[in-house]
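User: Batch of two.

Assistant: Item 1 of 2:
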Amino acid sequence: MNTCDLCDRHDAQVRVLELPLRDYGGRIGFDGIVSTIKAYEDNSLVRDAVAEPGNGRVLVIDGGGSLRRSMLGDLLAAKALENGWAGVVVFGAIRDSAAIGAMALGVKALGTCPRKTDKLGQGLRDVPVRFGGLVICPGEWLCADADGVVLADGVLG
């Protein structure tokens, strides 16, 4: 199922992220149950999350839209892939985009930045986050492809 078909068939049940995210992962289309992180220029919680079994989930990172520091790099993306995460959506920047592009992991972000984040252990895990005109809650279902990102309260098909 792609995002356009989901919108056509389930328009009243889906919400569309109003944000021009770019595709960076080697897997353009992905979907899964959402887990969230809210952290500004500190990816400590991202490191913790991708070290856990992903079970096909999608990690949604609210990095405050910052393009000054990258919230995901190739090492954390490789760990996410190894642990079964379907994808990562970043309201912020990533780095190591060429290496991430070679991985079978869905990754969408605003852009890239070669600078890594601070590691201060700051941020919140599995809380509602707000960006792109939506409130995104843990446990919702996310579907992403080349046309965008849609969310629903449950899995649609």
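Item 2 of 2:
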Amino acid sequence: MDYLQGITAVLAKDLQTELRSRYAINTVLAFVGASLLLILFALNAHQLSPTPKSALVWIIILFAALSSLSRSFVMETDRKTFNLLRLHSKASEVFIGKLCYNYLFTLSVNIATFLLYLFLLGMPIADGWALFLVLMLGTAGLSGIATMLAAIVSQADRKGAIFSVLSIPLLFPLILILVRTTKAALIEGFTENYLNDFWALFGYAGVTITAGILLFDFIWDE
């Protein structure tokens, strides 16, 4: 029970901080809106084939995540509260609390992005359950990588640049899997041909979150 209370306390603190400032959510939504309009009018997205249509939405989400998800730990360093967390919380409580915050934040952004993207392009949904699974697992993978890397770069001088450089190689395989599974969910419908892709998505999310929990003890001590 104390363990869950520690996780909840970290999550509640980050949610309250974001609700007060609304910096990250306003920045991300402005970026997403501008990117969608640019794609719609400059690239003639209606005329693109299914694979580019499925890829563009995740490219937007990727760069939106890179601009905001590092704040979960960077904010603690900037405000000199990192040592305070060490005094009052365990390493795993902090990591899981930050992970839950990043997951909820990213999931809300992803849902808003997909709804706006499908509305602007007039795209139907071939398989709603498959799209739900893609959003849940894709968000878990993004959040797991972002939370772990944010903890690593939080003590560095140029946090934003280092975070982006480290994130893109790790997230590149995830984006490739998400493009295929999104194509199945939106356009072709789920078939046995995509079963391995969904298992790969599940495995990627599980491995990144597990690795983050195991490695965070070493990051925490440093």
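The mean pLDDT is 80.
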